Amino acid sequence: MQVLVRDNNVDQALRVLKKKMQREGLFREMKARSAFEKPSEKRVREKAEAIRRQRKLARKKMQREGLLPAPKKAVRTR
């Protein structure tokens, strides 16, 4: 992973790096690896994640087909 520092602005580069790491799931993985997870807990967690992914895909598919209303877009004002 690489982040460019522009105009010696290290604070902005750190924010970009943290955002990239968050998107990649690095923090979640570090937290999971910090302590031992029992195999039964791992099975339960992975099954819950799979169910969550399937529901999300089904929801998106229904929105594309027009069966569910699309989520409202956030309006930003500057």
From TrEMBL:
Stretch list, region Disordered: 57-78
Keywords: Ribonucleoprotein, Ribosomal protein
One term under GO cellular component: ribosome
Cleaved signal peptide residues: none
Similarity comment: Belongs to the bacterial ribosomal protein bS21 family.
PANTHER family: MITOCHONDRIAL 28S RIBOSOMAL PROTEIN S21, SMALL RIBOSOMAL SUBUNIT PROTEIN BS21M
Full protein name: Small ribosomal subunit protein bS21
Species of the source: Rhizobium rosettiformans
Gene behind the chain: rpsU
